[in-house]
Amino acid sequence: MKFFICVLILSIPNFLWADYLESYKKLEKKYNFDRESYTFIVKNISEKNSAPIIRNQNKLFNPASVAKIITTYIALKELGPNFKWRSDFLYTGEIIGDTLHGDIIFKGRGDATFNTEDLERLIRGVHRDGIINIEGNLILDKSYFLPVDQIKDFDEDPLRAYNALPNSIVIQSNTTNFKFSEKGGKIKIEVTPELKKLEVKNKLQLTNSRCASWKSKLDYSRKHHKSKSTIIFSGEFSKKCLEKEIDLSVLDDSQYFYEIFNNLWLSNGGNFNGSVKTKNINELDARLLKSHFSKSLSEIIRDINKFSLNLMARNLMLTVLAESKEYPINESSINIYVKSWLVKNKINSKGIIFENGAGLSRITQISAKQLLHVMEKIYNDPMMPEVISSFPIIGIDGTLKKRMRHSSARGNGHFKTGSLNNVNAIAGYFLNKDKGMKIFIFMMNDLKANQSESFQQDLIDLAYSY
User: Fold this and answer.
1) CA pair distance 51, 45, nearest whole angstrom
2) Contact between 99 and 313 (Cβ < 8 Å)
3) Most buried of 3, 188, 270, 283, CB within 10 angstroms?
């Protein structure tokens, strides 16, 4: 068949190779998906002259979150594994006694891991240095990135955490956690962090139905009135669910940061009655109070890839642009940057579209052959251990913890997954039964894409057995 490339294989005798090819054909017939709707590649990279098994190698497909492989690899190469994001508290005006007669400034530089514990440590450090009262405002300096379009409409679910927009200033991934449980025949909703400007209306009906697909039975909407926001939960929640939680991006990012800052400043014994303003600050006109540094990039990419964290990935690619100082620091520049980077590294970029660092896109596209070249480059790079170890392990952790637990390759491979409506993809590295290292890539763009996971597993199991 035309779509298979077959050359002399050193690792597999010819009669076994013929059986191997026939086994792939049988699998394709078994699942009977439209053969133009998917692409896959299996290549043994332990054998120099090994030929790949390939379908639709040059056709462009949407990779969904598999695009994070490229984002994290480029970031490791350009920023270095020890790169850390820095966040600063600065001030203007005068400090007299324990009072700041001026503004306190928070300057963020894209740290999407920054959380309430980090902010509280900074606040306590400022208090230890003697500032208890603030007579000015909280100024948020977001100048590290250019302004981001505030429309969150991907797949028409703007409140979901995966839709949180990239931002120079992030806290708690700019999301609020809602925990649902049944107490005394009623549904209890706990909110973390607690926010004075957020009201929760509970219109949920308690049922005794099965808990499967509980999120699909949950409805939520948001309303704004003056300075307050209200989130309304309706639909059903089953007592059989015991306890479930969901993260939603409910408040405006600046208001959200202000609410958390205000709560922490007051709860740690400070006084503050100011408002929040967004303004670019010339650091020559302000003085440094305290700095916070994130974990190293080599640690953070484990969270990005294992749990497919979109906001972190989007901020990461914008950070690469910011540190390069060669491109406008917005997502409109990313495609030009990525294609230029691939060409510079001798990888064909024809037809590639890379909309953002997360793969949360309907226009991002790449061919399996192009992705294979990236993954071969990763394997032969000194950064290889950092990249591959950041991928979920089959049947063990991350987005693959509950998948392929009965696969023959369980525990033997690291794979990055990706899924959107009508898109399903997986790519990674694994050891076959003879300890040969293989690359596997699968992408499907079709109405039936999310039914393809069994097909993916069977393809991997087959590749594992030879």
Assistant:
1) 9
2) no
3) 270
